[in-house]
Specification:
Elements lengths: L1 H15 L3 H11 L17 H11 L19 H10 L3 E5 L11 E4 L4 E5 L4 E4 L4 E5 L5 E5 L1
Antiparallel strand pairs: 1-6, 2-3, 2-6, 3-4, 4-5
Length: 147
């Protein structure tokens, strides 16, 4: 009985450690500007993975446990962000349409790991580098990641 309770508590804490509402609020606040508490990589190859990381951090995720991060705790490379989410047990699927189960608070990567976006709703995203707020998720073969 005690082992089952411990396992339940671990699962319970894991489910609620990522607050989608806070992550989405952060994405909406900073989709067209920079949070000066983080480095801006716009002129160093792009800021998209960094911005998505910031959204996840605002939602309570600690990325530094399993991921390659900068001094602020952000993942700054799209491929490394994908690896990080997989290591953290996120669902993932490559699809030409939005997969069942995908929801706001998820991550979309496009152009064969060339760009990352944060889902502010199931069908719209926010992103940096070319700043976007509330744009429709583009058609085409995308990678979807969700908790």
């Amino acid at each position: 009985m005690q082992k089952k309770l411990v396992l339940f508590l671990i699962c319970f804490i894991g489910v609620f450690s990522y607050n989608v509402k806070k992550a989405v609020a952060y994405a909406n606040k900073y989709c067209d500007k920079r949070n000066h508490n983080y480095h801006d990589y716009s002129k160093e190859g792009g800021d998209c993975a960094n911005f998505v990381s910031q959204c996840l951090i605002a939602g309570g995720m600690k990325l530094s446990d399993e991921c390659v991060v900068d001094s602020h705790g952000s993942v700054i490379n799209v491929g490394k962000l994908e690896e990080c989410l997989i290591k953290k047990g996120w669902h993932h699927k490559v699809s030409k349409s939005i997969p069942e189960g995908f929801k706001k608070g998820g991550v979309i990567t496009i152009n064969d790991s060339g760009h990352a976006m944060f889902a502010v709703t199931k069908t719209t995203f926010a992103a940096h580098t070319n700043d976007r707020c509330g744009y429709k998720i583009p058609d085409g073969k995308n990678k979807y990641f969700w908790k």
